């Protein structure tokens, strides 16, 4: 099983990114033992649309485009 994280926005350099990387490394070690094949993280840039509905639609389309075949959305 694969775990794919798709998020809107990019994590900037700093303590939060360092912490996220540390957890990612821990997951890869422990996840293998639990049957996970790895962790993929996709950071999608925020939509620049001014209208909220358009922004939501653009970001939803970007997320949908990255969903793997036979996925389970949580």
From TrEMBL:
GO biological process: methylation
Coiled coil: none
Signal peptide per UniProt: none
Keyword Transferase in annotation: yes
GO terms, molecular function: methyltransferase activity
Keyword Methyltransferase: yes
Keywords, in A-Z order: Methyltransferase, Transferase
Protein name stated in the entry: 23S rRNA (Pseudouridine(1915)-N(3))-methyltransferase RlmH
Lineage of origin: Bacteria, Pseudomonadati, Pseudomonadota, Betaproteobacteria, Neisseriales
């Amino acid at each position: 099983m694969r775990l794919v994280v798709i998020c809107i926005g990019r994590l900037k350099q700093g303590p939060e990114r360092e912490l996220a990387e540390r957890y990612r490394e821990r997951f890869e070690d422990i996840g293998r033992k639990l049957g996970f094949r790895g962790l993929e993280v996709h950071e999608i840039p925020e939509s620049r649309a001014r209208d909220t509905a358009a922004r939501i639609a653009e970001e939803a389309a970007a997320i949908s485009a990255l969903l793997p075949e036979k996925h389970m959305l949580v």
